[in-house]
């Protein structure tokens, strides 16, 4: 190791002769920017974090010095680990590094969950010099007797796309895994490869355990050319809309994407959800665009085929989700399209950064927007991206189920070890440096009580036991285990893709039509036991778009605040008499986007200003009320608004004794309130609530939420307290059983911590309350709903399915509901209860025992409500169940079988059933269309209920 690392154009001189000759043979005349700055320090043996866009040569930056160090060495074990977040990246890295390995005499192999037993045995007996693997497979490798010997020789660990791991529990798990590796191989060089991040030092601490490291960051903003466009609806889009069975606005988007794909040789088109990929892909294929679809729920073979087709020029574009953000090799990309706002600066930089990368290239991209909020958010994000202003992305500190997972791993590693030694290893990892000894002991006791490890308390020793092996291998991954169904083509028997269980539970039934791979499929068979959906292809442009969980990208507070600032500037100019065009011209100097697009983004704000309403900004709230709702216009982002919304709804519910509905987006909190509640009631809560009480109020409100119940089940599994759990609608826990059993345990503490970390922003919400109460944030109130306040009702949706489902879909919905089962239960005598199919219900149900028409209709599994009605001394929850039963009975009494049909729909309670029934409509099909609309809304929001 030299004292001074070689950098700059001469960086390759830091490498040995064999590597330099290989570089010349490959035509690498001069290093890329990250190579100029990082190869020298890496060759010098330093721990390094390289922050640069995908495609800028980061892999070679890390691996050329590693190859140089390994070539010519004679060792038994593994010299270097190359860890990636995805198996697909494993495959890519193997192919990308193979030539270098063969040329330099360095053996490279891949190991992950699909590696055959034969190959695993071969790797254990004759380890490669470089092992390409995933964080989960490293966990398994650390416990293998022969592989532990091979890992003793590790001198270098490279973690690719480390930013992707850092913000999840996978990163926390890996950080302890590296400390377990250090127990075998002592010190080793650590190299992290990352896209642009807010705080590279956090990545460095995670990578090294807060040991010495260097950050080498390449500025990407200056090499970025991003345009924001709001396609104008043209005359031809009207005809196109008819052909594609969509509306003219979506048709204009489809046309614009088609034009951009045609203008470039190779285009990646990113969307924010898999639903959008499927829906948009089906329209583009109808149009004849040469584009493929790529997302994580498609079969592996399908993804590989479409990647190859794009790389070989057989298709011109790839419609993809976040999986393609990472460095999967699909060849050169000319241009990147982002459909709808990317929501986050980091995502835009990662996605647009995939274009270009030839020497001197600019990464070019186009954001296609769909509504005023979308335009303004995109303007803000593009501006921040050009200035390198990436939002914070906090890592998971102190996740207790990760500690549980790694305690079992240490027991597997050593057979037995002292608890203090295990605590020392765990707390060397950066996310756990502040883990209290008492918390650690509580986790160990929980594992011991679940028969995962043996705890000898007197001697303070941990030992492996019979259940350790099974627990550890069932919990290699920190990704929650949720059921997915394989989708198989009945004709070919090949796998089309997968569906999340929530989609299957809510929509999948025989005859249902849905979109996957951009094609239409009808369900012919549904095997719940083997979790297989068998389908046949059909020609139908109006299928349902599947829902997959965990997909919504939250807008960070800093982005929402910048949008609020933009609203303030534009709003004051509009209020002073400016029109959208003149104001857009003034904003053009800052945002460098065409005037017409900016003017489109100002349309709602202009309507708002014309009516004389105050503008919501970064330091002003607007609370409006009317028609049973109160809307808090607040530019604080998804998580902070969700927290404020839960706080206000919980306190309002407590004050009124009624439930309060809640929907949030980055700029609005919409509350469905009991009669008599007004804007000032909400303002009083915001002004009077002690900021120090936010956390306790939110935690208390979570105890009534299904989200905590599901999270508890997932975390309990990772502690070994439950056997493998799937989020099945059929696996129904008693309302409070899990909560009562686990409250006060590390399982409960971790479930709460995780919800606070991933869904909410408690500290930020408390800070906002403080600012309001100090007068730094103003609050205005208005009666009625404003254009800006109403704008959120359609601004957040990305569903491209037509508003009116076609006749075949309606017929399927009818048939499904008629065959669904319901419980009919008499509330007058409470003796008669009958479970039957909807089609067998009479036009006016009545009780055969007492002849009363006060009959309620319940879901077929809802025996709890029957028990609640019959209970004499009712709990609060039983009282609520009883009230819902009586509301449903009132509907059945007034509207007969029509009410039973509405109540039998999925996720439609008495209040929504009443809205459906009371709506004037032309024919029966519209009645079922309204039911379908409510079911879709329920499917999108169910995880928050």
UniProtKB/TrEMBL annotation:
Classification via InterPro entries: ATP-dep_Helicase (IPR052511), DEAD/DEAH_box_helicase_dom (IPR011545), Helicase_ATP-bd (IPR014001), Helicase_C-like (IPR001650), Lhr-like (IPR017170), Lhr-like_DEAD/DEAH_assoc (IPR013701), Lhr_WH_dom (IPR045628), P-loop_NTPase (IPR027417)
Name of this protein: DEAD/DEAH box helicase
Family of this protein: Belongs to the Lhr helicase family. Lhr-Core subfamily.
Domain Helicase C-terminal: 256-401
Family matches, as PROSITE patterns: HELICASE_ATP_BIND_1, HELICASE_CTER
UniProt keyword DNA damage present: yes
Keywords per UniProt: ATP-binding, DNA damage, DNA repair, DNA-binding, Helicase, Hydrolase, Isomerase, Nucleotide-binding
Helicase ATP-binding domain mapped to chain residues: 39-215
GO MF: ATP binding; catalytic activity, acting on DNA; DNA binding; helicase activity; hydrolase activity
Keyword DNA-binding: yes
GO biological process, one term: DNA repair
């Amino acid at each position: 190791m030299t004292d001074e690392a070689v950098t700059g154009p001469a960086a390759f001189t830091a490498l040995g002769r064999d590597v330099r000759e290989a570089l010349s043979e490959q035509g690498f005349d001069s290093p890329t920017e990250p190579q100029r700055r990082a190869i020298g320090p890496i060759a010098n043996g330093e721990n390094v974090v390289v922050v640069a866009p995908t495609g800028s040569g980061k892999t070679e930056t890390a691996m050329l010095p590693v190859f140089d160090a390994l070539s010519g060495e004679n060792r038994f074990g593994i010299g270097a680990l190359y860890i990636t977040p995805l198996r697909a990246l494993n495959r890519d890295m193997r192919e990308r590094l193979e030539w270098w390995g063969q040329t330099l005499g360095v053996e490279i192999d891949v190991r992950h969950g699909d590696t055959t037993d034969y190959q695993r045995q071969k790797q254990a007996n004759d380890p490669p010099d470089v092992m390409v693997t995933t964080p989960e497979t490293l966990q398994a490798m650390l416990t293998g007797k022969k592989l532990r010997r091979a890992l003793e020789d590790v001198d270098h660990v490279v973690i690719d796309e480390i930013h992707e791991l850092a913000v999840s529990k996978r990163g926390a798990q890996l950080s302890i895994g590296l400390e377990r590796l250090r127990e075998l191989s002592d010190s080793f060089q650590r190299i992290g490869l990352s896209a642009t991040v807010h705080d590279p030092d956090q990545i460095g601490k995670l990578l090294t355990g807060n040991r010495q490291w260097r950050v080498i960051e390449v500025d990407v903003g200056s090499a970025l050319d991003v345009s924001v466009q709001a396609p104008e609806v043209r005359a031809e889009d009207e005809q196109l809309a008819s052909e594609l069975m969509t509306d003219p606005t979506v048709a204009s988007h489809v046309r614009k994407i088609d034009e951009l794909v045609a203008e470039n040789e190779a285009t990646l088109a990113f969307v924010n959800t898999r639903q959008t990929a499927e829906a948009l892909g089906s329209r583009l294929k109808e149009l004849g665009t040469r584009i493929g679809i790529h997302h994580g729920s498609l079969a592996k073979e399908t993804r590989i085929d479409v990647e190859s087709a794009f790389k070989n020029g057989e298709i011109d574009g790839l419609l993809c989700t976040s999986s393609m953000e990472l460095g999967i090799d699909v060849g050169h990309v000319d241009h990147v399209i982002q459909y709808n706002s990317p929501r986050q600066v980091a995502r835009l930089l990662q996605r647009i950064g995939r274009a270009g990368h030839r020497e001197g290239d600019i990464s070019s991209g186009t954001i296609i927007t769909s509504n005023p909020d979308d335009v303004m958010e995109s303007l803000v994000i593009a501006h921040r991206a050009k200035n390198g202003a990436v939002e914070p992305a906090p890592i998971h500190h102190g996740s207790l189920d990760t500690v549980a997972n790694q305690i079992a791993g240490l027991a597997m590693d050593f057979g037995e070890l002292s608890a203090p030694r295990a605590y020392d290893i765990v707390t060397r990892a950066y996310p756990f440096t502040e883990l209290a000894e008492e918390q650690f002991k509580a986790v160990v006791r929980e594992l011991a009580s679940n028969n995962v490890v043996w705890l000898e308390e007197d001697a303070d020793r941990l030992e492996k036991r019979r259940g350790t092996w099974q627990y550890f291998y069932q919990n290699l991954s920190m990704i929650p285990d949720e059921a997915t169904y394989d989708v198989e083509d009945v004709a070919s028997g090949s796998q089309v893709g997968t569906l999340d269980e929530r989609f299957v539970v809510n929509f999948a039934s025989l005859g249902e039509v849905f979109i996957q791979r951009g094609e239409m499929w009808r369900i012919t068979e549904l095997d719940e036991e083997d979790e297989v959906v068998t389908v046949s292809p059909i020609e139908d442009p109006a299928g349902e778009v599947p829902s997959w969980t965990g997909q919504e990208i939250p807008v960070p507070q800093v982005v929402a605040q910048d949008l609020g600032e933009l609203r303030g500037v534009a709003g004051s100019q509009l209020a002073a008499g400016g029109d959208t065009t003149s104001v857009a011209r003034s904003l053009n100097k800052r945002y460098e986007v065409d005037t017409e697009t900016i003017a489109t983004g100002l349309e709602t704000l202009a309507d708002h200003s014309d009516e004389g309403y105050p503008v919501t900004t970064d330091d002003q709230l607007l609370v409006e009320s009317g028609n049973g709702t109160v809307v808090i216009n607040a530019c604080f982002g998804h998580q902070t608004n969700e927290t404020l919304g839960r706080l206000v709804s919980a306190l309002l519910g407590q004050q009124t004794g009624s439930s309060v509905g809640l929907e949030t987006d980055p700029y609005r909190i919409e509350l469905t309130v009991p009669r008599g509640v007004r804007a000032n009631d909400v303002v009083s809560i915001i002004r009077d609530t002690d900021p120090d009480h936010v956390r306790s109020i939110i935690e208390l409100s979570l105890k009534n939420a299904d989200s905590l119940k599901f999270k508890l089940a997932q975390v309990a599994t990772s502690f070994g307290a439950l056997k493998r759990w799937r989020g099945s609608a059929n696996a129904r826990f008693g309302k409070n059983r899990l909560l009562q059993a686990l409250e006060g345990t590390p399982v409960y503490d971790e479930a709460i911590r995780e919800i606070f970390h991933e869904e909410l922003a408690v500290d930020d919400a408390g800070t906002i309350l403080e600012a309001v109460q100090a007068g730094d944030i103003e609050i205005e109130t208005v009666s009625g709903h404003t254009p800006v306040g109403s704008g959120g009702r359609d601004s957040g949706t990305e569903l491209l399915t037509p508003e009116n489902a076609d006749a075949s879909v309606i017929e399927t919905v009818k048939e499904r509901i008629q065959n669904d089962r319901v419980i009919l239960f008499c509330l007058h005598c409470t003796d008669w209860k009958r479970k039957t199919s909807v089609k067998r219900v009479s036009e006016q149900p009545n009780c055969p025992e007492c002849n009363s028409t006060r009959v309620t209709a319940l879901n077929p599994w809802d025996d709890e409500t029957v028990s609640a009605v019959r209970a004499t001394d009712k709990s609060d929850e039983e009282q609520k169940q009883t009230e819902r039963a009586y509301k449903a009975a009132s509907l059945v009494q007034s509207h007969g079988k029509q009410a039973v049909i509405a109540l039998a729909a999925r996720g439609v309670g008495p209040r929504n059933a009443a809205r459906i029934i009371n709506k004037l409509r032309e024919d029966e099909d519209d009645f079922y269309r309204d039911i379908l609309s409510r079911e879709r809304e329920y499917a999108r929001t169910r995880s928050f209920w």
